[in-house]
Specification:
The complex is a heterodimer of chains A (506) and B (629). In chain A, 30% of the residues lie in helices and 36% in strands. With 506 residues, chain A is α+β, with helices and mostly antiparallel strands. Among the domains of chain A are: 3-169, 2-Layer Sandwich (Nucleotidyltransferase, domain 5); 229-304, Alpha-Beta Complex (Actin, Chain A, domain 4); 404-503, Substrate Binding Domain Of DNAk, Chain A, domain 1 (Sandwich). In chain A, helix 8 packs parallel to helix 9. The longest helix of chain A is centred in the middle third of the chain and has 26 residues, at 297-322. Chain B has 629 residues and is mainly alpha-helical. Chain B has helices at 34-45, 58-70, 78-83, 94-97, 109-123, 125-131, 143-154, 156-164, 178-182, 184-195, 214-225, 247-282, 284-368, 376-392, 395-407, 410-443, 458-470, 478-489, 497-520, 522-535, 548-556, 565-577, 585-592, 598-628, and strands at residues 2-3, 16-17, 25-29, 49-50. The longest helix of chain B is centred in the middle third of the chain and has 85 residues, at 284-368. Chain B folds into five domains: 78-164, Helix Hairpins (Orthogonal Bundle); 178-282, no CATH class; 304-439, no CATH class; 458-510, Arc Repressor Mutant, subunit A (Orthogonal Bundle); 566-627, Orthogonal Bundle (Arc Repressor Mutant, subunit A). Classes of the chains: A alpha+beta (506), B mainly alpha (629). Chain B: Residues 40-51 have a biased composition (Basic residues). Chain B: One of its GO terms (molecular function) is ribosome binding. Chain B: Pfam families: DnaJ (PF00226), Myb_DNA-binding (PF00249), Myb_DNA-binding_2 (PF23082), RAC_head (PF16717), ZUO1-like_ZHD (PF21884). Chain B: Residues 555-609 form the Myb-like domain.
Amino acid sequence: MAAFGLHIGTCSGCLAVYRDGKTNVVANDLGDRVTPCVVAFTEHETIVGAAAKQGIIRNASNTVCHVKRLLGCSPDDPLVAEYSKTSSVNVVNHNGVLMFEVNHRGKPAKFSPTDILKTIYKKMLETAQSHGGSGIQDAVLAVPPDFDTNQRNLVTDAATKAGFNILRVITEPSAALLAFDVGQLDQTEGFKTLVYRLGGTSHEAVIMEVEHGMYRTVAKVSDSQFGGDFFTEALQRFLMSEFNRQSRCDMKDNKRSVAKLGLAAERCKHSLSTMLTAQCAVDSLYDGCDFHYNMSRARFDSLCQPLLFKCTALIEQVLGEARCTKEDISKLIICGGGAKPPIVKKAICDFLPNATRLDSVPEDEIIAIGAAKQAALLVGGVESENIGIDKESSLINFKFLPKAVCIKTSNEELEVVLPQHSLAPSRRQHTLTLAQAQTDVALEIFQTDDPAKLETSELLAKLIMRDLPPGSTIKSNFHLKREGDLHITCHEVTSDKYESVTIPCP
Amino acid sequence: MTMNGTLSPQEGDTTCVYGKLSPLLSLDFEPVGRWFEAHHRRAHSQHSHSHHSIEGGSSSSESEEEEEEEDQFDEEDESLLLRLDPREWKKQDHYAVLGLSKLRHRASDDQIKRAYKQKVLTHHPDKRKAKGKKVKEGDDDYFTCITRAYETLGNKQKRRSFDSVDPEFDEDVPSVSQNSKDNFYEVFRPVFERNARWSSKRRVPKLGDENTPFEEVDHFYSFWYEFESWREFSYLDEEEKEKGENRDERRWIEKQNKAARQKLKKEEVARLRQLVDNAYACDPRIIKFREEEKERKNAVKRARQEAARQKIEEEERRRQEILDEERKKKEKLEEEARAQAAIAKKEKDAFKKQVKKERKTLRTYMKDNDYFATSEEDRVNMLQEVDRVTELLSLTSLQSLNEKLSKASKDSGKDIFMKGVNEVNEQLEEEKRKQLELTTQKSGGGGASGGAKKDWSEAETQVLIKGVNLFPAGTQDRWEVIANFISQHVAGTNKSAKDVLFKAKELQKNDMKLREDVKYNAFSKFEQSHKAAKSGEMEKPSERLETVGEQQVRETGSNQAPWTADEQKLLEQALKSFPASDKERWEKIASAVPSRSKKDCMKRYKELCELVKAKKQAQTAVAAKNKKS
């Protein structure tokens, strides 16, 4: 049974599949593992992906990109005005609904952001079907953590209409954590993880706490004013001045030349992520002049240097919100296509020296793979589907014991029975073996923040058992009930004596 | 977990509670990851979370978890195992053998494996031998059953076929009854949930409840009508394919098995179909949806009918209005007519009164003046004159006469009166003359009856009779021929065919009466004719001076023929001219109407009186009727 993980970002989307115990990214029809989220409308067809992105030079007014930004926006949202500045697509207010106005098949047509998104999902579905037959395409969607219920519903609807069966919508950071199986193998681990995502047009930092193998968002900061495209732009500006120097002509005012150079710069940037030098060549860039430049990574890094502080600043901000220090972060996940340049990763790793960076998966595929893993969990268990989670509630509430419950030992020390943050309800068995001469026993139950300090602990109850046969074993049961009460029963096996007490919860 | 070094209680200590547990923290988690799923499932399945799993030692955590799950396993029941017959392994309940009778098809592969291991540990022949228990030799031991059970359940394919024929499965299909209709959800929900496990598609739609929208209900039924079951009945195969000694035999066995399986599968499909059909029939939502649909259709129909009815009503109303208007108009006209009639009557009355008054004045004047008479005879004459004048003079002339008389002296009064009398007489004469002229003009020489305007001479008539006899009916252009005949024989005639026809008819009519009369007075006639012949001087036989009517009047004393309009006019004129006071009035009248006798006139007058009376009565009756309505 195949299960898919879907991640549609502002600039590009990725599809991963779980099959036969393995998670893999599904390559699209062009063989790319990541599909640009660009939809172009032409005289004859609707194009999605790299082809649409290539065609943006000639068909700018009919090419919709960055659609995710406008999802769920009302027409008079300031975001729309901002979007219109950068995009040549006509955005109109159609009966109070935001619409893109394009020329499609020779006729003017209107598409809502959801329609565009649906088109992208359809493309993804084609990719999915090419991979694994034409059955039900179960998928888990990953969305940004700041998506509200409405936006989640829009995304789900679009994907459902496109033909996916959406099992659950999860947040991108938790998908990133899941991609590396953080806390999944050993649920006793408890630590904080920082997920930094640098996308094309936005970046965000989230601190996630892993506890009992479950993830909890501690703090999140996102900024839609900075992204990977800024690095491309820096490179583009540099190349433009270089062209100016080479051929002594100014191409700033020619939009098509600028767009051409932009695409070339992006390709060059991608190459530089893996190679030390990259060729940037554009034939007939402007006024019949060809452009060729041999870009080195060092030069690119020096261009990026002034931008990197933005990344670290965001991390600093999220640390401040979570009220923790750099040292508290034990694991670091850097994801998003924009974080591919080594200089970016290095800058962040240097900023958090104590954290181990998880880097076994390519940055732009992490989220999709995490989503696929979650999909696998949901598809695998037959019972889990009976439970289900409301699509509206993105988070699930669990109850915890705030302080550890301990019993006092003979050498004036506390032994933890129920550790801090135990989930309610829970049960714990504890066996006491008495010394040979001992015929009676007193069980003193404490609750404490720190088991090492007896002085600060609070005595909750005492259980006394007398006249026990010598060398007896006492089985005690600690039952933390759903409502928060703690019920303790002690049973002496040989004499069959019972003693019980209930500690109430206010 | 064992712990040493427990406290001993101090004297006087008792079990008691000193404090309260701090309230539970509530934190939100991302719905991600296997542990989340596990916790979430536990939270839903009401299982309390065993804390051992979060315990430090990783080795212990697994075994603890096992323990927890083991309470789902059956209690050790050796008697069941001992009762097993290894040769009848196919009939045994494999789940029960492995101690999984509670979990059955819900048991995971892992659980089956663990249960089997557990059974092996206790029931392996070697173990039992070590414990000193009796063990049968080889395959006869019940342990074989355990291995068989694991062989079946451990293999996915085999487990599936065993699950398919699970004896515990309730194949019951609720019937369509009042109970299943009333408690639809209670009755059908468990049945559908039970059968859902056979679905080869995952995510079987739920039955839902009464608030489920139509689309979902529809989806539910379309899913179940197209239900694809993975249930197969290979486990029930009579013979095993592997037992066949050669290929042909195996093939034959395979064929047999296939047929049997197909039959069972067919039954299964029919059973599911029955279930869905029954549910569909009982589903109150379907009934409700149907009713709603019907209601909607009816509403549309009703609306249409209502519209049509309103239209008709509207038309009816309009027509009624028009009718009312017409009726009102008519009433108004009638009213006006009546008013006019009343006015006219009044005027008439007034006129009559005035006339009466004038007459009276004249009479009293004449009386006062002693009728200007000198002698008795004179007086009588004058009286007659006065009567006539008063009767016949019109109002205005009477008035002027009176005025003149009142102004005049006694002597001149007589002159004036005489003048009036003369005037009246002149007037009468004039009228009479005119009338006579008219009558003579109209009736001419022939009888007044009919439109024959031309006079027929005796000769002509004779020729006509002759001609009629000569040319009998059926002759071509008979009347033209007769007309020619007449013109040939009588000089100076100008009778056309039409005239001839008319005259002939008249003659014929009279002829009949004549004949009858002849019959009556045959003798007297004979005598008369005889006398006439004797006298021989009276009449010229070819000439006739009087009309038929006159002749009849003369001969019989009455004219039987109906009154013509001319006769009527003459009669009226006569009635007017001869006042009722006249003693010989009727003789005079009769003389005025030449073709009628006195008796005829009187009779006619009476008839007319009656006619007028009847007419008046009828009119009053109609008026009364109108008033009533």
